[in-house]
Amino acid sequence: MPHPVDVVLDFLRAEEARGVTHVSLDDEARAVLRAVYQQSKGPRPAKPPSQPTAAVPAVDRLAAFAVEADEPPPPVVADADPAPVSMPVPTGATKAEQIASLAAQAEHWPPAFALGSLRKTMVFSTGNPEARLMLVGEAPGMHEERQREPFVGAAGEQLDKILKAMGLGRPEVYISNIVKFRPAMPNQTSNNRKPTIEEMAACLPFIRAEVEVVRPTCIVALGGTAAEGLLGLTGSVASMRGKWHDYAGIPTRVTYHPAYLLHGNASHAEKRKLWEDMLEVMAQLGMPISDKQQGFFLPKG
Q1: Of 87, 110, 123, 232, which has the fewest CB atoms closer than 10 Å, so is most exposed?
Q2: Residue 42 CA neighbour count, 13 Å, CB half
Q3: Once rounded to an integer, what is the mean pLDDT over residues 226-238?
Protein backbone atom coordinates (compact mmCIF):
# COMPACT_ATOMS: atom_id res chain seq x y z
CA MET A 1 0.00 0.00 0.00
CA PRO A 2 1.40 3.46 -0.80
CA HIS A 3 2.89 5.21 2.23
CA PRO A 4 0.48 7.89 3.55
CA VAL A 5 3.27 10.48 3.64
CA ASP A 6 4.09 9.80 -0.03
CA VAL A 7 0.45 10.36 -1.00
CA VAL A 8 0.30 13.68 0.84
CA LEU A 9 3.61 14.82 -0.64
CA ASP A 10 2.47 13.91 -4.16
CA PHE A 11 -0.53 16.18 -3.70
CA LEU A 12 1.53 19.03 -2.25
CA ARG A 13 4.05 18.87 -5.09
CA ALA A 14 1.20 19.02 -7.58
CA GLU A 15 -0.22 22.07 -5.78
CA GLU A 16 3.21 23.72 -5.69
CA ALA A 17 3.68 23.02 -9.41
CA ARG A 18 0.50 24.95 -10.23
CA GLY A 19 1.51 27.93 -8.08
CA VAL A 20 -0.23 27.20 -4.77
CA THR A 21 2.01 28.30 -1.89
CA HIS A 22 -0.14 27.61 1.16
CA VAL A 23 -2.31 24.72 2.29
CA SER A 24 -3.85 23.78 5.61
CA LEU A 25 -3.52 20.53 7.54
CA ASP A 26 -6.09 19.74 10.18
CA ASP A 27 -5.22 18.13 13.50
CA GLU A 28 -6.15 14.68 12.20
CA ALA A 29 -3.73 14.96 9.26
CA ARG A 30 -0.94 16.08 11.57
CA ALA A 31 -1.70 13.20 13.92
CA VAL A 32 -1.50 10.69 11.04
CA LEU A 33 1.89 12.01 9.94
CA ARG A 34 3.13 11.95 13.52
CA ALA A 35 1.94 8.36 13.99
CA VAL A 36 3.63 7.25 10.76
CA TYR A 37 6.89 8.68 11.96
CA GLN A 38 6.62 7.08 15.38
CA GLN A 39 5.96 3.66 13.83
CA SER A 40 8.91 3.89 11.45
CA LYS A 41 11.56 5.19 13.87
CA GLY A 42 13.01 4.12 17.16
CA PRO A 43 13.52 6.39 20.17
CA ARG A 44 14.46 9.93 19.27
CA PRO A 45 17.93 11.17 20.19
CA ALA A 46 18.14 14.30 22.30
CA LYS A 47 17.58 17.49 20.34
CA PRO A 48 20.71 19.54 19.58
CA PRO A 49 20.59 23.26 20.30
CA SER A 50 18.41 25.01 17.75
CA GLN A 51 20.24 26.61 14.85
CA PRO A 52 19.07 29.31 12.44
CA THR A 53 17.79 27.78 9.20
CA ALA A 54 17.20 29.21 5.77
CA ALA A 55 13.67 29.46 4.45
CA VAL A 56 12.61 26.41 2.42
CA PRO A 57 9.50 25.69 0.35
CA ALA A 58 6.42 24.46 2.18
CA VAL A 59 6.61 21.03 0.55
CA ASP A 60 10.20 20.54 1.72
CA ARG A 61 9.33 21.64 5.24
CA LEU A 62 6.46 19.17 5.41
CA ALA A 63 8.68 16.43 3.96
CA ALA A 64 11.28 17.12 6.64
CA PHE A 65 8.57 16.97 9.28
CA ALA A 66 7.25 13.69 7.90
CA VAL A 67 10.58 11.91 8.16
CA GLU A 68 12.50 13.75 10.88
CA ALA A 69 10.11 15.05 13.52
CA ASP A 70 7.30 13.95 15.78
CA GLU A 71 6.06 17.42 16.55
CA PRO A 72 4.07 19.97 14.51
CA PRO A 73 5.96 21.10 11.37
CA PRO A 74 7.09 24.66 10.79
CA PRO A 75 4.11 26.88 9.90
CA VAL A 76 2.75 26.17 6.45
CA VAL A 77 -0.53 28.08 6.70
CA ALA A 78 -0.50 31.76 5.88
CA ASP A 79 -3.66 32.41 3.90
CA ALA A 80 -6.74 33.59 5.76
CA ASP A 81 -8.84 30.78 4.26
CA PRO A 82 -6.52 28.28 2.50
CA ALA A 83 -7.92 25.31 0.59
CA PRO A 84 -7.73 22.05 2.59
CA VAL A 85 -5.58 19.20 1.32
CA SER A 86 -7.74 16.76 -0.62
CA MET A 87 -6.82 13.49 -2.31
CA PRO A 88 -8.75 11.13 -4.57
CA VAL A 89 -10.37 8.51 -2.36
CA PRO A 90 -11.75 5.29 -3.89
CA THR A 91 -15.20 4.31 -2.65
CA GLY A 92 -17.34 1.26 -3.33
CA ALA A 93 -17.63 -2.39 -2.36
CA THR A 94 -15.78 -3.83 -5.37
CA LYS A 95 -12.61 -2.88 -7.20
CA ALA A 96 -14.67 -1.95 -10.27
CA GLU A 97 -16.78 0.43 -8.18
CA GLN A 98 -13.67 1.94 -6.61
CA ILE A 99 -12.06 2.57 -10.01
CA ALA A 100 -15.32 4.13 -11.24
CA SER A 101 -15.34 6.43 -8.22
CA LEU A 102 -11.77 7.54 -8.97
CA ALA A 103 -12.70 8.23 -12.60
CA ALA A 104 -15.62 10.37 -11.45
CA GLN A 105 -13.27 12.40 -9.26
CA ALA A 106 -10.73 12.79 -12.08
CA GLU A 107 -13.41 14.21 -14.37
CA HIS A 108 -13.28 17.56 -12.53
CA TRP A 109 -9.89 17.33 -10.78
CA PRO A 110 -8.96 20.92 -9.76
CA PRO A 111 -5.13 20.53 -9.81
CA ALA A 112 -5.27 19.37 -13.44
CA PHE A 113 -7.70 22.04 -14.67
CA ALA A 114 -5.88 24.80 -12.79
CA LEU A 115 -2.80 24.28 -14.97
CA GLY A 116 -4.65 25.54 -18.04
CA SER A 117 -2.46 23.35 -20.28
CA LEU A 118 -4.62 20.23 -20.55
CA ARG A 119 -7.70 19.60 -22.67
CA LYS A 120 -11.04 18.97 -20.97
CA THR A 121 -11.93 15.41 -21.97
CA MET A 122 -10.91 12.97 -19.25
CA VAL A 123 -9.54 9.55 -20.25
CA PHE A 124 -9.12 7.32 -17.22
CA SER A 125 -8.46 3.60 -17.68
CA THR A 126 -9.67 0.40 -19.28
CA GLY A 127 -9.54 -3.30 -18.56
CA ASN A 128 -9.91 -5.45 -15.49
CA PRO A 129 -9.44 -3.92 -12.00
CA GLU A 130 -8.84 -7.48 -10.74
CA ALA A 131 -5.93 -7.94 -13.19
CA ARG A 132 -2.51 -9.18 -12.14
CA LEU A 133 -0.82 -7.06 -14.83
CA MET A 134 -1.11 -3.25 -14.97
CA LEU A 135 0.25 -1.27 -17.92
CA VAL A 136 0.85 2.48 -17.64
CA GLY A 137 1.38 4.92 -20.49
CA GLU A 138 1.95 8.68 -20.53
CA ALA A 139 -1.19 10.56 -21.69
CA PRO A 140 -4.11 10.22 -24.10
CA GLY A 141 -3.77 11.32 -27.72
CA MET A 142 -6.37 12.21 -30.31
CA HIS A 143 -7.81 8.70 -30.71
CA GLU A 144 -7.86 8.09 -26.96
CA GLU A 145 -9.61 11.41 -26.39
CA ARG A 146 -12.28 10.59 -28.97
CA GLN A 147 -12.99 7.12 -27.57
CA ARG A 148 -12.22 8.00 -23.93
CA GLU A 149 -10.08 4.88 -23.60
CA PRO A 150 -6.30 4.53 -23.21
CA PHE A 151 -4.24 2.96 -25.98
CA VAL A 152 -6.50 2.94 -29.01
CA GLY A 153 -5.50 3.83 -32.56
CA ALA A 154 -2.26 2.49 -34.04
CA ALA A 155 -0.40 2.34 -30.71
CA GLY A 156 -3.33 0.51 -29.15
CA GLU A 157 -3.38 -2.03 -31.97
CA GLN A 158 0.34 -2.61 -31.43
CA LEU A 159 -0.22 -3.11 -27.71
CA ASP A 160 -3.02 -5.58 -28.44
CA LYS A 161 -0.59 -7.57 -30.62
CA ILE A 162 1.96 -7.65 -27.81
CA LEU A 163 -0.65 -8.85 -25.34
CA LYS A 164 -1.90 -11.48 -27.79
CA ALA A 165 1.65 -12.79 -28.24
CA MET A 166 1.79 -13.13 -24.44
CA GLY A 167 -1.46 -15.09 -24.45
CA LEU A 168 -3.47 -12.23 -22.97
CA GLY A 169 -6.33 -10.04 -24.11
CA ARG A 170 -7.12 -6.44 -23.24
CA PRO A 171 -9.99 -7.47 -20.90
CA GLU A 172 -7.49 -9.49 -18.83
CA VAL A 173 -5.18 -6.59 -17.96
CA TYR A 174 -5.58 -3.10 -16.49
CA ILE A 175 -4.41 -0.17 -18.65
CA SER A 176 -4.02 3.43 -17.56
CA ASN A 177 -2.00 6.61 -18.17
CA ILE A 178 -0.02 8.92 -15.90
CA VAL A 179 -1.92 11.99 -17.19
CA LYS A 180 -5.69 11.73 -17.52
CA PHE A 181 -6.17 14.53 -20.08
CA ARG A 182 -4.61 15.17 -23.48
CA PRO A 183 -1.87 17.82 -23.27
CA ALA A 184 -3.05 20.83 -25.25
CA MET A 185 -1.28 22.59 -28.13
CA PRO A 186 -2.17 25.65 -30.26
CA ASN A 187 -4.33 24.79 -33.28
CA GLN A 188 -4.28 21.16 -32.21
CA THR A 189 -5.61 18.46 -34.51
CA SER A 190 -3.88 15.07 -34.53
CA ASN A 191 -0.62 16.35 -33.10
CA ASN A 192 0.36 15.45 -29.55
CA ARG A 193 3.05 16.46 -27.12
CA LYS A 194 4.76 14.95 -24.10
CA PRO A 195 3.13 15.95 -20.79
CA THR A 196 5.12 18.29 -18.57
CA ILE A 197 6.37 17.48 -15.09
CA GLU A 198 3.62 19.73 -13.68
CA GLU A 199 0.94 17.91 -15.65
CA MET A 200 2.20 14.54 -14.47
CA ALA A 201 2.38 15.75 -10.87
CA ALA A 202 -1.21 17.00 -11.00
CA CYS A 203 -2.51 13.55 -12.02
CA LEU A 204 -0.05 11.32 -10.17
CA PRO A 205 -2.32 10.89 -7.11
CA PHE A 206 -4.73 8.92 -9.32
CA ILE A 207 -2.10 6.41 -10.42
CA ARG A 208 -1.19 5.88 -6.78
CA ALA A 209 -4.86 5.33 -5.95
CA GLU A 210 -5.34 2.98 -8.92
CA VAL A 211 -2.36 0.86 -7.90
CA GLU A 212 -3.71 0.70 -4.36
CA VAL A 213 -7.07 -0.56 -5.65
CA VAL A 214 -5.82 -3.00 -8.31
CA ARG A 215 -2.76 -4.27 -6.40
CA PRO A 216 -1.34 -5.98 -9.50
CA THR A 217 1.39 -8.60 -9.34
CA CYS A 218 3.52 -6.39 -11.56
CA ILE A 219 3.41 -3.12 -13.50
CA VAL A 220 4.81 -2.25 -16.93
CA ALA A 221 5.71 1.38 -17.65
CA LEU A 222 5.36 1.90 -21.40
CA GLY A 223 7.92 4.44 -22.53
CA GLY A 224 10.28 6.90 -20.91
CA THR A 225 7.64 9.46 -19.97
CA ALA A 226 5.63 6.86 -18.06
CA ALA A 227 8.80 5.75 -16.29
CA GLU A 228 9.62 9.36 -15.43
CA GLY A 229 6.18 10.02 -13.97
CA LEU A 230 5.78 6.68 -12.24
CA LEU A 231 9.31 5.99 -10.99
CA GLY A 232 11.05 9.36 -11.15
CA LEU A 233 13.60 7.99 -13.64
CA THR A 234 15.37 10.07 -16.27
CA GLY A 235 17.35 9.12 -19.33
CA SER A 236 16.72 6.74 -22.19
CA VAL A 237 14.41 3.75 -22.10
CA ALA A 238 17.46 1.66 -23.02
CA SER A 239 19.04 2.66 -19.69
CA MET A 240 15.85 1.93 -17.70
CA ARG A 241 14.77 -1.38 -19.21
CA GLY A 242 16.21 -4.84 -18.65
CA LYS A 243 15.73 -4.80 -14.87
CA TRP A 244 13.05 -4.66 -12.23
CA HIS A 245 12.19 -1.43 -10.43
CA ASP A 246 9.84 -0.94 -7.50
CA TYR A 247 6.67 1.13 -7.31
CA ALA A 248 4.73 1.04 -4.04
CA GLY A 249 6.21 -2.38 -3.31
CA ILE A 250 5.20 -3.81 -6.70
CA PRO A 251 7.79 -5.08 -9.24
CA THR A 252 7.78 -2.67 -12.17
CA ARG A 253 9.32 -3.11 -15.61
CA VAL A 254 10.13 -0.30 -18.06
CA THR A 255 9.98 -1.00 -21.79
CA TYR A 256 9.49 0.78 -25.08
CA HIS A 257 6.16 2.44 -25.84
CA PRO A 258 4.18 0.49 -28.46
CA ALA A 259 4.14 3.62 -30.66
CA TYR A 260 7.94 3.43 -30.86
CA LEU A 261 7.68 0.12 -32.69
CA LEU A 262 5.68 1.84 -35.42
CA HIS A 263 8.54 4.20 -36.24
CA GLY A 264 10.92 3.32 -39.02
CA ASN A 265 13.91 3.65 -36.68
CA ALA A 266 12.76 0.79 -34.42
CA SER A 267 15.13 -2.03 -35.28
CA HIS A 268 14.46 -5.75 -35.13
CA ALA A 269 16.89 -5.91 -32.19
CA GLU A 270 14.92 -3.27 -30.26
CA LYS A 271 11.69 -5.16 -30.86
CA ARG A 272 13.42 -8.21 -29.38
CA LYS A 273 14.41 -6.15 -26.32
CA LEU A 274 10.78 -5.16 -25.76
CA TRP A 275 9.77 -8.79 -26.11
CA GLU A 276 12.46 -9.85 -23.62
CA ASP A 277 10.93 -7.42 -21.13
CA MET A 278 7.55 -9.00 -21.70
CA LEU A 279 9.01 -12.50 -21.28
CA GLU A 280 10.29 -11.36 -17.87
CA VAL A 281 6.80 -10.06 -17.07
CA MET A 282 5.31 -13.43 -18.05
CA ALA A 283 7.81 -15.18 -15.79
CA GLN A 284 6.94 -12.81 -12.95
CA LEU A 285 3.27 -13.67 -13.45
CA GLY A 286 4.04 -17.40 -13.50
CA MET A 287 2.75 -17.75 -17.08
CA PRO A 288 3.97 -20.65 -19.24
CA ILE A 289 6.39 -19.63 -22.01
CA SER A 290 6.50 -21.78 -25.13
CA ASP A 291 9.53 -22.32 -27.35
CA LYS A 292 7.75 -20.28 -30.02
CA GLN A 293 7.26 -17.36 -27.66
CA GLN A 294 10.86 -17.64 -26.48
CA GLY A 295 12.04 -17.37 -30.07
CA PHE A 296 10.13 -14.29 -31.17
CA PHE A 297 12.36 -11.69 -32.90
CA LEU A 298 15.48 -13.82 -32.63
CA PRO A 299 17.72 -13.86 -35.74
CA LYS A 300 16.86 -16.62 -38.17
CA GLY A 301 19.66 -19.08 -38.50
Answers
A1: 232
A2: 2
A3: 95
Q: Same structural domain for residues 43 and 158?
A: no
The answer to which of 54-58, 83-87, 232-236, 264-268 has the lowest mean pLDDT is 54-58
- Measured CA to CA in angstroms, residue 240 lies from 87, 166, 198, 276 at distances of 30, 22, 22, 14
Question: Phi and psi of 70, rounded to 5°?
Answer: -125, 35
Q: Has residue 140 got a pLDDT over 70?
A: yes
CA distances from 34 to 25, 56, 78 (A): 12, 21, 22
Q: Which residues pair with 222 in a beta bridge?
A: 255
Residues 180, 123 contacting (CB under 8 angstroms): yes
Note the pLDDT of residue 28: 58
Residue 2 lies in a domain: no
Hey, what amino acid is at 50? Answer: S
Range of 55's domain? 21-68
